[in-house]
Amino acid sequence: MQRERLTPDRIRRFTCSNDAKQAFLWDTEAPRLAVRATAGAKSFIFESKLDRRTIRVTIGDVRAWNLDDARTEARRLQTLVDQGTDPREQKRERIAAAEAKRAAAEAAKGEAERQSRYTLRALCNAYVARLERAGKAKSAASTRSAFKCHVFPHAEIADTPARAVTAHQIAALVRRVREAGKERAAGVLRSYLSAAFNTAKRAPFDSALPADLIPFGIEHNPVDVIPAIAVQRGERTLSAGELRAYIGHLLRIGHETGPELADVALLLALYAGGQRMAQLLRAKAGDFDQDTATLRLWDGKGKRTQPREHLLPLAPLAARMVASLVERAKARETDRAKAEGRAPELAGLWLFSTHGRVAMNPETVSNRAAEICAAIGGEHFTLRDIRRTVETMLAGLGISKDTRAQLLSHGISGVQAAHYDRHAYTNEKRAALVAWEARLEAIRQAEKQPANVRRLRAA
Q: Which segments of the protein form a coiled coil according to its record (predicted)?
């Protein structure tokens, strides 16, 4: 064993011979300290015995440690050995503690990132995006509007991590809307927030849901404990006189220009049995079968992942309206194609479109209905009230509840409807629409009921 007092010069000159893997130069001042040299490196080491076992600990590279510090470290390690402590165990514990500290720092950093990225605001936006990807454009627009008006302005809640949002915070949002006198909006907001949290909660387990909801880490829904707000049922129906005035405005009686496109949409929705405007405006020229006078709509309302085909075997006047819309769409496309020097693209033409590029916005039609309502005067009504009026009058004509449900495309759910009832109700719907068209004509002529209309016996 080579031993002499270590100095910086001796350490620099000390090398390992070519025929050896390593060589040691032991210090006389700190007997447990040595310099170990290999082919490419030199380091300070400590070596001692504990319980007859040799203990060797690498202190560090000679370029990183000065000699005095290395001797001090060797004496500290010897003190531990004298106390019966293995320095290697202490080193392992120190490394483990450092690793735990590093892991905790990374976790804290990740949590901070989660808190800054996965907020209630971000969850609301992700949920709206999910509705849009599912093709529920109307629901997405309504949900986005509710969040924008009643959640996002309250940054102290909107920018809280979604998984940390409490029931008290949600209740505060809903209460603000309710105390402003917006009972219906408060109920809708609660419903939308509950749906957003439930969707994110199910995302890790439901492969049909988008993976971008998983990082929100939602494990419970804070909206669950907040009571639902009952929706007040609408009661408004139009009288025969009000309906006659409504039809008169739509037909532009006394005006040479005839009805505008929005008026045609309102008129067709009425004559086709009170159809939902959003579904009617999505109809295309190819959805009308002139041979059978049948118009096909697509009902995506509710929790359906795929829209349900909704067929309307139209009565004569409604069928002529749709046929005229088809010809209008084709003529406009032909003229536009001729002006642009290309072949006309007659597939996929919108029935209701101002310029032929996109379908008419439902808001345009709703605004027109509001104008007519104001012009008529009296009690306010909406398109929903028109739809309710149609069903009420259909019931008065003896149209059965099942046929009305098929005709207005609502309440068609449950095991029976989903799996067993495969009847198309084509004849029933056509008979109902023929009777309804006759009833509207009688209202226009200010008659109580045409003599040739017979009440249909309930099925």
A: 88-115
